[in-house]
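Would you mind writing out a protein's amino acid sequence and the numbers that encode its backbone to help me picture the idea?
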Amino acid sequence: MILAAGRGERMGALTATQPKPLLTIGARSLIERHVARLAASGIEELVINLSYRGGEIRTRLGDGSRFGVSIEYSDEGEPPLETGGGIVRALPLLGREPFLLVNSDVYTDFDFRILVDLPRVLTLVLVPNPPHNLRGDFGLDAAGFVSAAPPLSTYAGVAIFDPKWFAELPPGRRPLKPVLDAAIARRDLRGLEFAGLWLDVGTPERLEQARDLEARS
């Protein structure tokens, strides 16, 4: 599942006339980059949630055939349902097995095959804290399970989740963190640290940073 429903308000004028996932880095948009890399990792079926100007994303990606995948869309209407609510709405499309989740607005060279090759291990990818999130989000204990204890790293917006975590939740707007906190308390979630290229493209400045990195790669 690729999360693509957010408006991207911090982008200002850049998202006034187009959805944030269609902002370009090099020759491709953020979301096209993810679709292509997921396809290269062996993923064949994608679900993408839509809200703000979602029709433009649907038009750009179509059924996914030009990428070698099939794409189904989960339309949320407006306002978007946040991450937790978006997953709840998409459950009929996601099926019963653990699924890979990717935020459309991260720029990374993380190899998705690392997660695809895991035997359905529920995993949260963590990265070193960037300047805009120095406090971090989650820690790792000695056994490799995600914890709330420091030192804390930043959630990368890449994970494998169990749809059972969301199956009993009512529909509507809902953040993800309470679901993760419950999974952490049950020791249901392992962590994977990634120190490679990763950038949360959340502001115009970070978009330009990603474009500079892409131009030099």
